[in-house]
Amino acid sequence: MTSQSRPDLPGTYVFDGPTSRRGHNMNKLFMSLTDAGARTEFLADETAYCARFRLSDEQTTAILQRDWQAMLDLGGSIFYIYKLAMMDGRSMQYLGGVFTGMSEDDFKAAMLAGGRTDV
Amino acid sequence: MSEVIWGLATSHVPSIGAAMDRGMIDQPVWAPLFEGYRPAREWLARNTPDVAILVYNDHANGVDLDIVPTFAIGTAETYRVADEGFGRRAVPDVVGDPDLSFHLLENLVDEGFDLTVFQELDVDHGFTVPLSVWTPEPGDAWPCPVIPIMVNVIRYPQPTAARCYALGQALGRAIASYQGAGTVGILGTGGMSHQLAGARAGFINPTFDHMFLDAIENDPEKLASLSREELIRQAGSEGIELIMWLVMRGALHKQVRKVHSAYHVPASNTAAGLALFDNRVAQPA
């Protein structure tokens, strides 16, 4: 997540031009999942669906394995990644737990306690 | 001429809308948030404008990454409630005001704000949740026509805070020169501090949020001077949405009267803030 064009803040993704270009096809795949018919096609053969969107091998693997962190690193925007998470019945707080090495319950508890004010 | 009578700043967290739609507002997790909204809602119900302008951002529902307008305005007769992947929220579609939209567009372009134009637009939670914060039980229709102004806050580089404030000032002038509507409400939405992704996910900064709540009333120029980097550092990668509050504030007078403000952590992953200002205040000579 290095870039010459925008701030590099620890633990923080900034969806800049290079990231957007790297993740464009994958984000388009995520966007397509807002359509119920597309979700059916995706679930029937996820590998073929990824190929249709010309994803890289790394991006395809990240999606097949639901490696949410890798999706971020490979150019996914959190708002687009969330389309796939919603399809799987996962919450934003589940994802927050994944990104911070916590269980969903622990992440929720941290938010209810006032959020992560020390990071 | 038309007059901006109030400005409302509010978070747009989707789970706030979900809590209302699913009858969860009395649950212990949610009750304090909605209790904080109550005085603002009561005041707003007594002060319905002829038309409202809602400054918001889309979250991959009305637009995608093929085209990302920095600033845009809707000119449609109606705006459908978007299906974000789990069905449409059971709230009314939004009635627009094309005549005022075109007036604002022309005046803002003349002032150097080259807005993208949406003749069709589905509006997502970024739009409908603030409407629900304003009007919890709209029935068949929202209280008045509403015009969307969309701001890119997702893709870097977002517009600067200073540019958002200047847009709001131009918007205020454009409203004042309009003969059609009488009274106008303006909403600035999003924030407060939050971050959804990365090792800093769950970040909340109450110190910054309280500074912002105070300064949006008393010293918006200070907020307009914040850099993009500073906003992301202090409010989180999604907390930069707070620049949309500055569009609202720019359209109000230098001096406003705070009707009510509220702050609650958390609304899911976000610090939820609200600030309501009466703009009908005598200004110093």
TrEMBL record, chain A:
Residues 26-111 form the Extradiol ring-cleavage dioxygenase LigAB LigA subunit domain. Residues 1-23 are annotated as: Disordered. Signal peptide: none annotated. Gene3D superfamilies: Dioxygenase LigAB, LigA subunit. SUPFAM superfamilies: LigA subunit of an aromatic-ring-opening dioxygenase LigAB. It holds the Pfam family LigA. This is Protocatechuate 3,4-dioxygenase.
Automatic annotation (TrEMBL), chain B:
InterPro entries: Xdiol_dOase_suB. Residues 9-271 form the Extradiol ring-cleavage dioxygenase class III enzyme subunit B domain. It comes from the Bacteria. Pfam families: LigB (PF02900). SUPFAM superfamilies: LigB-like (SSF53213). This is Protocatechuate 3,4-dioxygenase. It comes from Pseudonocardia xinjiangensis. The lineage of its organism: Bacteria, Bacillati, Actinomycetota, Actinomycetes, Pseudonocardiales.
